[in-house]
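FAQ: What does a multi-protein file look like?

Like this. Sequence, then tokens, then the next protein.
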Amino acid sequence: MELLPAIDLRDGGAVRLVRGDFGRTRRYGDPLALARRYVEGGAAWIHVVDLDAARTGEPVNRAVVLDIARRVEARVQVGGGVRTEADAAALLDEGVARVVLGTAVTETPEVVAALAARYPGRLAVGLDHRGGREELAVRGWERPSGTTLGEVLSALAPLALGAVVVTAIDRDGTLEGPDTAGVRRVLERSAHPVVASGGVRSPADLGALAALACDGRHLAGAIVGTALAEGTMTVQEAIAACAPSG
């Protein structure tokens, strides 16, 4: 299971939200410096989310995103406001390893299919939900999509995706522990690589995620934000916890 340290961007700076609430923001300074800190700790991936773009669709932090992708020795996965083929191409053709589409999955699924064919294995889909409900949230987690997790997973089944990223919004930024039951359901229902996000607070939480299995398949990755930014867990501790036991 890969560790993906998370860096969320707002107004050009690194932040974390609590439960997706834009009114509850913690700030962590220079995002490039934070990315370099994680890579120096051994991270092979960095997960970057443009929160401003997620709300508005306008890529106001794209220069910051590309600066991170070009200047750190890690693969960079980027989400937030990627809703068109042009948005994805502007990232994937300029050094980003993988992009995450969320809103487009329910609003313009033809864009997702086209991008999966154009960039096989380099497209991820964000499945963001609250309170264990099946309905997905879109547009910066602020609107209900009217589409269920099961419907989306069925539609995604034939696509050449690099991952599906499952986010428990009500746990994100809380350090209350991951939604292992919800992640397990997606692992059982999808043949794509599954990445978990939201609530991880400790190496024990990562160990619990790494232990999840379905028909011999395990999670492909876990995204960790607040615990690493706050220093309650080091990158080295997190990577060790992601490794299979025994």
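And here is the next protein:
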Amino acid sequence: MHLSISGVSKSFGDGSRAKLVLDDINFELDSGEFVALVGSSGSGKSTVMRLIAGLERPSSGTITVDGNPVRGPGSDRGMVFQKYSLYPWLSAADNVAFGMRLQGRSRSEVRERTGYFLEVVGLQDAANRLPRELSGGMQQRVAIARALAADPKVLLLDEPFGALDLQIRESMQEFLFLLWERTGLTALLITHDIEEALLLAQRVHIMAPRPGRIVRTVEGELDRSNLSHLRVSTPFLELREELAQQLRSLDGTLV
């Protein structure tokens, strides 16, 4: 899989009232990579995600998956939002199965893959529970399982843990990292949390606002064998603070 974003800009509005929100975005993502876009509100990172998902069209530039232009939503891109977006009347298993049934997969394949991905996210014992019976972290794991079960080429994660409290968010970050290690999924994470981006991603693109643009790329050459230890390690804390200061200088806000 190869995702390419080349010279992408996006404006909203027409003529003299047009507002440039993204300016000349360029980056790539290959199979098995975990890449993050990090920036404060107004940096356009969620707009980038919507463009890649096919929910918006760029004003200029190209977005391709394996050389094929993105012209709308497609099953090659799985999306996980900040809001869990589960169907409240369906069980966890039926939520995971929903997309596969739309794809026309056989009943036996849907059953097998549903069981497998619920096991992958550690929720095989919650298969028959409704979303209201699950914690926020569990609901987000169901949403991730649903996205993976549809067999996308790339998983798009738009602030997936932003609605969770600190303790659950940290456990979900570790869960997602272990899931990436176990399955070799290809993932693009959008977040305002510098720590989250550095913990999870092999490569982090820093975005500045007004208009949104990539101003720096950080290769994540950190020891991720123990994320709890990494969070408090000196190299990690120094890099986090350096990037936080850069973002503050760019937009005048605390990060």
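Q: Is there any per-entry metadata?
A: Some entries carry free-text notes. For the entry above: The chain is about 40% helix and 25% strand.
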